[in-house]
């Protein structure tokens, strides 16, 4: 029976992969054992061919762009292609509000790419949960603790006084004014992220993560694949959006038998160690949304369509693994949870942390995208990026046996003998998704309303609907009816809405004395309704990168968009000067100032100088106290990265290649020529 099965599978694979059956051997096998071994060889070769074809597809996707969002569900189109939503429809990442749930974050279906693997999620609606701090068990998680209520709020004698004081904390957070109220202990930032890996559970379907509203509606991975194939073939969908496309792959072939791995993902959050100023979240420009919707830049401030990038500096800059995003992602563990303490030594490399000048090893059990090595590579670099060209590839090593392993070996000639080393390791991948600021509203319950009511008690079998009368008000609250904030806190309950939003503007709730209190939802929102005297406050900042922006065409497009939107700043870069040029600077180019570093005769490298340029806008910003980072021209096989300031009516070098002074002897004061 086994022989028949092996033969059938071999023939099926042969026809599928080659279009015709494998030719019959010229000399028939002499024994049954030889026939079995021959069939194993055929199966082994065919399985490896399938595995390589899958790998080539991943490599092609990797070269198309970075890890990031590729698309969301199409809901409309138009006469020009930019009327069709791609990464942004009503909101970025299909974000919406479920503020009536205690810790549910509204997010629809996504089509991401991670390390060359393209997949499609179900409707996500994930929860504020983090990896376990006490257990290293596979996918063990726990709730993220809510921030406390400020003592100056809870100590007020009346609810009206508490409302007034709570508004002042929201004012301080919105203005980022710690002197008005030190909001930082009570407005806690969390970094939510998308994590994925190849798992070994190819038969039993594992729900990727907990959601109060959605789940994968299939009996097995193969059942899910059939349902997704049907919706793709027919152009239909799951009305509840509970299907996901998760590829299966052959990750290894052993003794002629293919070994399968299943791609799976989850969304978790990590409470950041320190406060994250909102000024570090810079708005991205998306003309594909603004143009068809005729949105001005000021109008985007209140829009759910905004997306952001993290940058702790006042200017854009090159980076090699030492940005604020790298610092934050380094706080997030992989599948071993916060107990992770792993080090990768594959190919004999000693992987060190690029953020430190000493020889600190990278804890590869936490998410990172750069490491450095002791000796230079073939291109003369010590700082190495994970992946060939994927700027957003954050990886973490794991010891979890449910993650598919990958093995390799490397052999060297030592004293005329071949010496080989073998390595087997497991990895998962992550992408930053959004920054959420948890507010004290999550903990504030000024009327001490009951929070453990069952569904039956709360709605009285459907007879209570949150009305304003005693017989219609909800009888208490629970995690699905999270109404703890007095409606008086807001000037209006209205916010920019989405059809997927679920919270009521206001609901009547009975307190423990049976009195009706008009309350509004206390869960996480993209933006709060207008707070009296404060206005609306944003608490969710999506920062997930875009897959296409890693492609050369997108990079050229973004550079052109930057120049087009800031013509005055980049006037010197145009072939034909835009508009009317008012001044010609020392460089002989309109709006461009040329500076020369002092001549140095230090040997090595030898007598030389360098040049760099500032345009008029940058020079004016420098004079206003905004430091600038520039890179000089290359001379004698090197250049310098300079941090500039303006002091005593002169441009001054603050840092030269991260040091107070240039290593080759240039002075701190360049000359305008």
Automatic annotation (TrEMBL):
Annotated signal peptide: 1-19
Keywords associated with the record: Signal
Protein name per the record: Uncharacterized protein
Top-level taxonomy: Eukaryota, Metazoa, Spiralia, Lophotrochozoa, Mollusca
């Amino acid at each position: 029976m086994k022989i028949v099965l092996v033969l059938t599978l071999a023939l099926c694979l042969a026809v599928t992969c080659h279009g015709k059956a494998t030719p019959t051997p010229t000399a028939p096998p002499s024994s049954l054992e030889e026939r079995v071994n021959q069939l194993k060889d055929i199966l082994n070769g065919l399985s490896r061919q399938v595995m390589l074809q899958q790998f080539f597809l991943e490599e092609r996707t990797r070269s198309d762009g970075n890890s990031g969002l590729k698309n969301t569900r199409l809901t409309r189109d138009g006469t020009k292609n930019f009327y069709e939503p791609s990464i942004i429809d009503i909101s970025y990442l299909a974000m919406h509000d479920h503020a009536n749930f205690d810790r549910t974050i509204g997010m629809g279906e996504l089509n991401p790419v991670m390390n060359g693997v393209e997949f499609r999620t179900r409707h996500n609606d994930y929860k504020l949960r983090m990896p376990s701090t006490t257990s290293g068990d596979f996918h063990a998680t726990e709730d993220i603790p809510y921030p406390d209520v400020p003592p100056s709020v809870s100590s007020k004698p009346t609810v009206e006084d508490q409302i007034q004081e709570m508004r002042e904390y929201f004012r301080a957070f919105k203005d980022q004014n710690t002197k008005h109220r030190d909001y930082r202990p009570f407005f806690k930032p969390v970094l939510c992220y998308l994590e994925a890996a190849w798992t070994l559970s190819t038969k039993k379907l594992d729900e990727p993560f907990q959601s109060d509203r959605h789940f994968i509606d299939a009996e097995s991975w193969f059942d899910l694949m059939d349902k997704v194939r049907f919706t793709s073939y027919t152009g239909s969908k799951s009305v509840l959006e509970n299907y996901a496309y998760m590829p299966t792959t052959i990750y290894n072939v052993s003794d002629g038998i293919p070994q399968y791995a299943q791609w799976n993902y989850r969304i978790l959050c990590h409470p950041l160690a320190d406060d994250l100023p909102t000024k570090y979240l810079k708005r991205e420009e998306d003309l594909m949304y603004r143009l068809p919707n005729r949105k001005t830049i000021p109008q985007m401030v209140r829009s759910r369509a905004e997306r952001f990038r993290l940058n702790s500096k006042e200017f854009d800059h090159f980076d090699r693994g030492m940005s604020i995003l790298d610092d934050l992602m380094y706080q997030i563990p992989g599948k071993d949870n916060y107990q992770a303490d792993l080090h990768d030594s594959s190919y004999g490399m000693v992987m060190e942390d690029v953020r430190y000048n000493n020889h600190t090893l990278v804890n590869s059990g936490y998410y990172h995208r750069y490491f450095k090595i002791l000796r230079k590579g073939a291109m003369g670099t010590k700082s190495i990026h994970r992946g060939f060209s994927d700027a957003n590839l954050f990886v973490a090593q794991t010891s979890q046996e449910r993650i598919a392993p990958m093995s390799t070996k490397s052999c060297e000639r030592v004293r005329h003998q071949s010496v080989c080393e073998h390595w087997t390791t497991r990895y998962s991948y992550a992408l930053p998704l959004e920054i959420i600021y948890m507010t004290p509203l999550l903990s504030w319950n000024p009327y001490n309303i009951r929070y453990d009511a069952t569904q039956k008690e709360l709605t009285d079998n459907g007879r209570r609907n949150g009305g304003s009368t005693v017989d219609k008000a909800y009888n208490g609250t629970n995690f699905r009816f999270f109404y703890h904030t007095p409606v008086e806190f807001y000037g209006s309950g209205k916010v920019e809405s989405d059809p997927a939003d679920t919270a009521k503007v206001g609901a009547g709730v009975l307190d423990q004395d049976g009195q009706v209190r008009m309350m509004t939802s206390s869960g996480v929102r993209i933006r709060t309704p207008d707070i009296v005297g404060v206005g609306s406050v944003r608490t969710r900042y999506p920062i997930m990168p875009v897959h296409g922006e890693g492609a050369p065409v997108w990079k050229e497009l973004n550079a052109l968009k930057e120049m087009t939107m800031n013509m005055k700043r980049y006037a010197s870069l145009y072939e034909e000067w835009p508009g009317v040029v008012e001044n010609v600077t020392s460089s002989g180019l309109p709006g461009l100032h040329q500076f020369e570093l002092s001549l140095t005769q230090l040997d090595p490298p030898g007598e030389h100088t360098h040049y760099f340029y500032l345009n008029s806008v940058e020079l004016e910003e420098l004079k206003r106290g905004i430091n600038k980072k520039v890179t000089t021209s290359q001379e004698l096989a090197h250049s310098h990265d300079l941090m500039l300031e303006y002091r005593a009516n002169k441009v001054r070098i603050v840092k030269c290649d991260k040091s107070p002074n240039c290593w080759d002897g240039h002075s701190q004061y360049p000359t305008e020529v």
